[in-house]
Amino acid sequence: MKIFYGLAVALFLFEGIIIQCEGANEFRDAPVIDEQYLPDHLIGEILSKAGLNVTKEMAQAQMKVAGDAIRRVFETRIIAIQEYPDMAETIEVYDGEQILLIRNHTKLMSLFEQFGSHARRIHISYESMDKERRREINEKIMKRCANQLTELQILTRDDTGIWEEMSNGKRDIRFPKVEHFIFLGSSKRNKFDLNAIFPRLKFFSFPFGSVTDTNCLANVRNLKELKLYIESIQEHQLGNIFANNKHISKLTLKTHIRKTIKRETLRSIESLKNLKTLEINKVSPDFFNRASNRVYNLTSVTTFVTMCREPIKLNRDFSFDMPNLKHLRLCGTNSDNRTSDLINHFKSLETVLLFGDCEFNVIECIESLKYVKEFTTSTYFNIGQISLFRKLFENFDTTKSNLNKLVIDIDETESEYFLWEDAMREINNKLKESNKPTWTLSHGIWEEFRKNHLEFKRNT
User: Fold this and answer.
1) Which tens digit of pLDDT belongs to each residue from 394-424?
2) How far is the C-alpha of 242 from the C-alpha of 237, rounded, in Å?
């Protein structure tokens, strides 16, 4: 996670509550906002968008809306509770979404005493948390916030005692408004009825761990997104889960590193008529090949992601059809020179990503592409291979290929890019002379993979 606003939180003054903050600079030379010209709710919105650091400075300047801004922070951010005895700071981080990470127990309890009624999304880690503090947090935070939360994430190696501490006097556990639940770890409860606990559950993520009650999803009926670790909840149970949740639009199936998800699982997935995104990790090498006359029609799927740790083996008879597929991502080892046949099998494709070891001629694969518009490969190329791209662009035929963007992996040095740039300038001059399409070169970093890349974009 990248630090979005480094805060080293020390003492804030909010409506009589003091929360310690370290390293705060005097807010002396900044322009003063005359509050009479702006309504409180608007200034509060500005401060909540600006972040906790700015709000701290406004509090030091004794602006009355600072407390309102913190309330908005609690309403709009994910509040992450992750206690570390040696870390006293509270920080705001960015990991796809803005997160307020609270690590100090005293500050945690003070913040929630003042602003806890505004919390909507809590991510809590029970790792490294002693039982006494855990009970206090569950009693004074989790139980009190239960009726207002819309999102909950729990990380624990053992949930023994946790749910009981959050229960009401009748020992019922209920989060009536939670729609998004992420469970990371292990549950040893004999009865873990997710529908009883989360009656409005729409998004459930269980990417790793184990559950004793393998029927925990039996009564859930309104899922839109589902991520499952196929070790505790077995594949044979998927049929009933899907039958009860026919409106699932995104499905992710994960399994142990030494196991693969069966091709027959597609039979259950086939019943999901609203499915748009399908991610399967990981598949067997022959997953894509038809084993019988059975072809699985996944007509609604537009994004398909797979991972295979062994070399993929392909033939020309594929086990499924996705006529509306637009985005394909193949991750893992790929050594089959018929990969282009698999890609061309999907006529509506817009983007393809091959990430991993490609042990075949990638350039020949690109030359054979028909329908896909953007092709990305993590295969590394250096400037010494520029002749391969010269040939590719000289022979490119717009009547046979829809490709308009090509992305490859390169060396991270800036001088390497300048060499590519000089070479492409020469290639484009030759392409102009022969009335061939030219290509604009650019470079950047794949944020997802932390890798440098070159991008060739066809000029129209």
Assistant:
1) 999 999 999 999 999 887 666 788 899 999 9
2) 9
